Amino acid sequence: MKTVLGLFFTLLWSSAAIATKFGLNSTTPLVLATTRFLIAGVLLFLYVYLFHKKYPWPKTQEWRPLIILGLLNTTIYLGATFWALKYVSAGLFNLFVTTNPFVVAILSNIWLKRKVSLKEWIGMIVGGMGLVIATCPSFTSNEVKLFGLVILGIGMVSMAIGSVYFNKVNLNLPSIVINTWQVSIGGVVLIPITYILEKDHYFLILDFNLFVSLIWLVFIISIGSMLLWFYLLKQDTVRANNWLFMTPIFGYVLAVILLNESITMFNITATVFVVAGLLISGNIAIRPKR
């Protein structure tokens, strides 16, 4: 069951970059990101506190962790990745997603005293090698810009820190309540940042691309996949992040279907490496454990 949930999360998560690419045809990156977060925050708030009044409000001591999570997981991570997707390809974006397990493993060892096993390290290295192979063509083309890589790197590090921090603080709140506040807080903080960075080149086209992008990003990514992400994190922080190794593979498949892109031998070779890495690390079991 954990394998099914991990694969399902990865499929949803990998679709975010493609949905964002559609939305960027109609508006600027941070406007798209801010709009997504505010809509998702309002919908979650209405569901949690008006339609289902059983959910608790955060206690005084819980506001600080919620604000930090909102800044790390929404404002910095998602804001940076939306901005970076203006400069880098979706494939390269998904490569950077796979750097999270390495950062999380190190931070978990320092903060949570969680020992990373040798097979997990070997599995991550093998999977990482496959993803480098898959994205080699991107590094030899003109589509990659250093600015985009720096922004993307900042975002991915922020997500890794957020993952470990979430496990460390161990908030005694339902996942949907945590997600409601981190999305809302992160979106509000992003408003002035969006104005400062994009006021000189702002544009907004209310068309099919924008609406489809927002619907998918709000309901499937911000609400659905984030709830699943918190569940996986509570099971095991490092193992949850290891599932991110599969995002480039699903991303390529979705790109073929939705963007008419082709799959190369680089992609096929990468698939073999990534699946092998997951098998070695223990995220996919050929036989069910007893």
From TrEMBL:
<feature type="transmembrane region" description="Helical">
    <location>
        <begin position="63"/>
        <end position="85"/>
    </location>
</feature>
<feature type="domain" description="EamA">
    <location>
        <begin position="5"/>
        <end position="134"/>
    </location>
</feature>
<feature type="transmembrane region" description="Helical">
    <location>
        <begin position="265"/>
        <end position="286"/>
    </location>
</feature>
<feature type="transmembrane region" description="Helical">
    <location>
        <begin position="91"/>
        <end position="112"/>
    </location>
</feature>
<dbReference type="InterPro" id="IPR000620">
    <property type="entry name" value="EamA_dom"/>
</dbReference>
<protein>
    <recommendedName>
        <fullName>EamA domain-containing protein</fullName>
    </recommendedName>
</protein>
<keyword id="KW-0472">Membrane</keyword>
<feature type="domain" description="EamA">
    <location>
        <begin position="147"/>
        <end position="280"/>
    </location>
</feature>
<feature type="transmembrane region" description="Helical">
    <location>
        <begin position="240"/>
        <end position="259"/>
    </location>
</feature>
<feature type="signal peptide">
    <location>
        <begin position="1"/>
        <end position="19"/>
    </location>
</feature>
<comment type="similarity">
    <text>Belongs to the EamA transporter family.</text>
</comment>
<keyword id="KW-0732">Signal</keyword>
<feature type="transmembrane region" description="Helical">
    <location>
        <begin position="121"/>
        <end position="140"/>
    </location>
</feature>
<dbReference type="InterPro" id="IPR050638">
    <property type="entry name" value="AA-Vitamin_Transporters"/>
</dbReference>
<dbReference type="InterPro" id="IPR037185">
    <property type="entry name" value="EmrE-like"/>
</dbReference>
<dbReference type="Pfam" id="PF00892">
    <property type="entry name" value="EamA"/>
</dbReference>
<keyword id="KW-1133">Transmembrane helix</keyword>
<feature type="transmembrane region" description="Helical">
    <location>
        <begin position="29"/>
        <end position="51"/>
    </location>
</feature>
<feature type="transmembrane region" description="Helical">
    <location>
        <begin position="209"/>
        <end position="233"/>
    </location>
</feature>
<feature type="transmembrane region" description="Helical">
    <location>
        <begin position="178"/>
        <end position="197"/>
    </location>
</feature>
<feature type="transmembrane region" description="Helical">
    <location>
        <begin position="146"/>
        <end position="166"/>
    </location>
</feature>
<keyword id="KW-0812">Transmembrane</keyword>
